[in-house]
Design goal:
The complex is a heterodimer of chains A (283) and B (213).
Chain A lengths: L1 E2 L7 H23 L10 H17 L3 H17 L4 H9 L2 H9 L12 E7 L2 E6 H27 L2 H7 L7 H32 L5 H32 L16 H23 L1
Antiparallel strand pairs in A: 2-3
Chain B lengths: L1 H21 L3 H14 L4 E3 L5 E3 L3 H8 L1 H19 L7 H24 L7 H32 L14 H34 L10
Helix pairs in contact in B: 1-4, 1-5, 2-4, 3-4, 3-5, 3-6, 4-5, 5-6, 6-7
Classes of the chains: A mainly alpha (283), B mainly alpha (213).
């Protein structure tokens, strides 16, 4: 995937930044998940079910106003959960919704969406007409995406990742799959550090690889080398699992405890979703 | 969500196929394979004009692990991206998995197998086959995504015909998705996949002789 916005960065720095961005994201999420706040105090199972209900509601509603209500509620939860609002807004609004806006922009014009004109302009002899259905459709599209992304990011920021992965069992995901996902997530820290070390080492020994072809060879060599290291590691990990009593049947520790507060929260979530669905049908 | 239902039998078949070939060692092997498929995206490759890009690596993982194991590995990577980092959309996870964990590795792998069949482990035909597989896989995946986007205005719209989700029909969505992949993204995939196979051949050509590849 090309990224011409970062032309000024050399591929070595870009790779180091990618690895560091992953580590930073993961560490920040864990930090917020460990804070004392409303969402952090809920049982991850109840929290996931409620957020999944909000998500289905946001995706199903056909009114931007009602979806905005859900977005506002999401921001209140951010405030109640000791998550910095600025960090949350930057993370949720800066890339995906802006990208969606860029995608949907042509549909506001009459050439793509005919309808009542709300504004027209002339540029270089071309007349552009923006229509009401075009604007309504674009607003609905962007608001829905912004709300969906915000809900998922809030769930991820307020829940320890290890617990969130265990909750997958709730949705009937086989234990072996959950174990694979959990193990994979732990190895990502190791591999991200590995990528950072590889490129820091290249930078400190070679400085800058200026030739494009040579740069491609350096990257490919290091991916191949990473693959070799991962296969060796899988043997070692298997041996370590055997030595700790792994018999081929994985068992996950689960220490979730539901309280009346969790049931009350779930009830509130159901009431909110039902209200929004009802309003959506009567609008 | 429809694609989530489509993926269930595919994941079931993948689990069965993987159990058969990887036995009890499958858990660390798959977990580390999935982490590898995630990490490939962190390697930035220099491309034209001083800019950089990254490969998706689905076909490379299919060549290294086999298509069924790649299906699980890429699914795991996508689940982690969507659930923990909010990068892929939870409600689109079925469609994303169909395109990137099923279409991409399977098309790429079988193009690779078809072109490389009968060639020696260290032959340059395998490098070409890996590149061709990567290109075919990523473009087929983009075509599949373009069709899914393009069908949405036909399937989901208001009474007055206004699209509820993706606003572009097949005539816009398919060319838009294919263009970038045919012209640029596909070639990043070709470079990475072919060069990695070349280096692995140099290090240990036996790897390509039997089993999964």
């Amino acid at each position: 995937m090309s990224n011409p916005l970062h032309k000024k960065h050399h591929f070595i720095e870009r790779s180091i930044l990618s690895a560091l961005a992953f580590l930073k994201d993961a560490t920040t999420s864990e930090e917020y998940a460990n804070r004392k706040g409303f969402l952090q105090s809920l049982d991850p199972r109840f929290k996931t079910i409620s957020f999944f209900s909000f998500l289905v509601t946001a995706v199903s509603l056909k009114s931007a106003v009602l979806i905005s209500f859900l977005y506002g509620f999401c921001l209140i939860l951010v405030l109640l959960s000791s998550i910095p609002v600025r960090h949350f807004l930057v993370r949720t609004l800066l890339f995906i919704p802006l990208f969606s806006l860029f995608i949907v922009l042509p549909t506001v014009f009459s050439a793509m969406t005919p309808g009542d004109p709300v504004w027209s302009f002339h540029v270089a002899g071309i007349t552009g007409i923006i229509t009401r259905p075009g604007v309504d459709g674009a607003v609905l599209f962007v608001v829905r995406i912004a709300t969906s992304v915000s809900l998922v990011v809030l769930l991820s920021l307020s829940t320890r990742h290890s617990e969130l992965l265990k909750v997958l069992r709730l949705f009937g995901v086989p234990q072996i799959f959950v174990l694979t996902v959990s193990m994979c997530y732990r190895y990502l820290y190791l591999f991200a550090t590995m990528v950072e070390n590889i490129f820091t080492a290249i930078k400190s020994r070679v400085g800058v690889v200026s030739h494009q072809r040579h740069g491609q060879k350096v990257v490919a060599w290091n991916i191949a080398n990473t693959w070799n290291r991962t296969t060796q590691m899988s043997e070692e990990v298997y041996m370590a699992m055997l030595s700790r009593g792994y018999t081929g049947e994985p068992r996950l520790l689960s220490k979730f405890h539901a309280t009346p507060k969790d049931w009350l929260w779930l009830l509130c979530a159901i009431v909110i979703c039902a209200f929004l669905f009802y309003r959506g049908h009567t609008l | 969500m429809v694609f989530g239902a489509v993926m269930i039998p595919i994941w079931r078949a993948a689990s069965k196929a993987v159990k058969k070939t990887l036995s009890v060692r499958q858990v660390p092997y798959l977990a580390i394979g999935a982490a590898f498929s995630f990490v490939i995206m962190m390697f930035n490759v220099p491309i034209l004009g001083g800019s950089t890009g990254h490969a998706v690596g689905g076909v490379l993982v299919a060549i290294l692990l086999g298509p069924w194991a790649a299906c699980i590995a890429v699914t795991v990577a996508l689940v982690i991206q969507a659930l923990l980092f909010g990068d892929g959309g939870i409600t689109a996870i079925g469609a994303n998995c169909f395109n990137m964990a099923f279409v991409l590795p399977f098309v790429g792998y079988y193009v690779y197998k078809f072109i490389s069949s009968g060639s020696p482990a260290g032959s340059s035909r395998r490098i070409f086959a890996a590149g061709a597989g990567a290109y075919a896989g990523i473009c087929a995946s983009a075509l599949s995504a373009g069709i899914e986007f393009g069908l949405q205005p036909l399937l989901y719209h208001t009474a007055n015909g206004q699209a509820l989700y993706c606003p572009y029909g097949l005539n816009v969505a398919v060319p838009a998705m294919l263009f970038g992949h045919l012209v640029l993204i596909g070639w990043v995939e070709v470079i990475v996949t072919a060069l990695v196979v070349k280096y692995l051949q140099k290090q240990d050509a036996v790897f390509f002789e039997g089993g999964r590849s």
